[in-house]
Specification:
This protein has about 300 residues and is α/β, with parallel strands linked by helices. The chain has helices spanning about 15-25, 45-60, 75-85, 100-105, 120-130, 145-155, 180-185, 235-240, 255-265, 290-295; strands at about 1-5, 30-35, 65-70, 90-95, 110-115, 135, 165-175, 205, 215-220, 220-230, 245. An 8-stranded parallel barrel has the order 1-2-3-4-5-6-7-11, surrounded by 4 helices. The longest helix has 14 residues, at about 45-60.
Length: about 300
């Protein structure tokens, strides 16, 4: 099983990003994703700087470097930037929007199909395999049973399976909107947000009126309140056909998370329980930890 480090979903400044990737380059990661996927206004790094960072990481790490595209394209300028990203000529691209799929297919370039593409059956995977997809990241709400069923359908269609990369750790990206919820929380319009999401390096916690953790707000992105953690489900990840486990960056503690997954993939027995939710993986409500409610 390979370990991947997903793109940073939060807004960090250039110094924090540089320090983070410097630390990550020394860790046992097989794939590292770079780039901005949430908001086009976040410009701590330009495309050229992301590519420069990729070249630096290639010189000191054995990990495959992948450049992730924006998830929600809303303007002609963003479409132009997407075209430049797909034409980067150096790094494999993770397509998070069907516009990126079209650009990459036209250029006959291989790509990773990101979780926001919402691919839920073998026929959809077959269409994207024809476009050049080599790796599928299932939507974060997919259960182990659904992933197995999709892969079985791909086999029945007589197609070769892509690599399968499961979102195994981090706040789950659930939805995207044209509105910026972080700016709204500070009574600022989206066009004058003053980049307030940089004040929340792990997102802005949102609770229900009863005080129950409900969501994490991250600009235009709505995420799970709890961090998902599938380390205790490692055997099930192997059984469902996962080739890679995606660990989504958080501001603190990522080295320890990677070390825990590294120990298990080297043969250590997975823990019986871990902090975090895993409901989606078991076909239940995503916010549940199924071991606690006896559903596993």
């Amino acid at each position: 099983m390979k370990l991947s480090l997903g793109p940073v979903l939060f807004y960090w400044d250039k110094t924090q990003l540089g320090q983070f990737y410097s630390e990550m380059s020394a860790l046992p990661l097989d794939v590292i994703y770079l780039g901005e996927t949430v908001c086009s206004k976040r410009r701590a790094f330009s495309l050229d700087q992301w590519l420069g960072l990729g070249r630096e990481l290639q010189s000191c790490s054995q990990a495959q470097l992948v450049l992730s595209s924006l998830t929600l394209i809303e303007a002609a300028s963003e479409l132009s930037s997407l075209r430049r990203l797909c034409d980067n000529g150096e790094l494999l691209v993770e397509a998070n929007d069907m516009g990126a799929v079209q650009f990459l297919a036209e250029r006959q370039l291989p790509f990773v199909a990101g979780p926001a593409l919402n691919l839920y059956n073998g026929h959809a995977l077959g269409q994207l395999l024809d476009c050049g997809m080599i790796r599928w990241v299932p939507p974060v709400e997919c259960s182990a049973a659904l992933i197995r069923a999709v892969l079985d359908q791909v086999r029945e269609l007589g197609r070769a399976l892509p690599e399968v990369e499961v979102f195994a750790y981090g706040h789950l990206p659930l939805a995207y909107s044209a509105r910026c919820f972080t700016a709204r929380a500070q009574n600022r319009p989206k066009d004058d947000c003053q980049f307030c999401c940089i004040e929340y390096p792990d997102g802005l916690a949102l609770s229900s009126q009863e005080g129950q953790p409900l969501f994490t707000l991250n600009g235009i992105q709505t995420m799970s309140a709890e961090v998902t953690n599938l380390l205790a489900d490692y055997a099930g990840l192997v059984a469902c056909g996962a080739d890679l486990l995606r660990l989504s960056p958080r501001a603190q503690g990522m080295a320890e998370v990677i070390a825990a997954y590294q120990r298990v993939r080297q043969g250590e027995t997975p823990p019986l329980f871990v902090d975090g939710c895993n409901g989606y993986w078991h076909g239940q409500a995503g916010m549940l930890r199924v071991e606690e409610v006896g559903l596993c």
